[in-house]
Design a protein that fits this description.
By secondary structure, the protein is α+β, with helices and mostly antiparallel strands. The chain is built from 6 helices and 4 strands; from the N terminus they run H-H-H-E-E-E-H-H-E-H. A 4-stranded mixed beta sheet has the order 1-2-3-4, with helices on both faces. A hairpin with a 4-residue loop joins strand 2 and strand 3. The chain starts with a helix and ends with a helix. The chain binds zinc ion. Zinc ion binds next to loops.
Length: about 160
């Protein structure tokens, strides 16, 4: 059971968020954030499978819940949305004009969290691989890069 005061607080926060997100494009984007099994994620899984690597998805027991991971080989993959995780220099990493401060604070928190997760995984001996959703457009290049990176970890490099 969630204590009543916290539930009330959560509802108020949800209302505030709703008020902040007014234009349909932004709210559609926000809605996608929490989705699992996105097209990008499925594409990456398919490639890794084709390359003959085994993996698990979800991985809630690892820092940051990597989308795809192999505990034995110690690699963890995050398939990141360019908007939400601020892909540097990417045209998808726009900042909504409305409520700019709110967004900037939110983005900054995401960047800090991503960095902290990567460093915690590193301490646990994991190689962290970030794949940006825009990279899915060129699956041949993506496959080539993943092959190289994952082979290296297979050989213990
Ligand atoms: Zn991007």
């Amino acid at each position: 059971m969630v204590p009543r005061s916290r539930a009330v607080h959560a509802r108020a926060a949800a209302r505030r968020r709703q008020k902040l997100v007014t234009d349909p494009e932004t709210s559609a984007r926000l809605g996608r954030i929490r989705q699992r099994d996105t097209a990008a994620e499925l594409a990456v899984r398919r490639i890794i499978h084709q390359l003959g690597h085994r993996f698990r998805v979800g991985n809630r027991d690892l820092p940051g819940s990597p989308d795809i991971a192999n505990r034995k080989r110690h690699w963890a993959i995050f398939v990141n949305g360019c908007f939400w995780h601020r892909h540097n220099g990417c045209s998808r990493a726009t900042t909504p004009k409305r409520n700019r401060e709110f967004w900037e604070a939110k983005f900054e928190a995401n960047i800090v969290r991503d960095r902290r997760v990567a460093s915690t995984l590193h301490e646990l001996g994991y190689k962290t691989i970030t794949i940006w959703e825009c990279e899915i457009a060129d699956q041949i290049a993506l496959q080539r890069n993943l092959k190289r990176v994952l082979e290296a970890s297979r050989n213990g490099l």
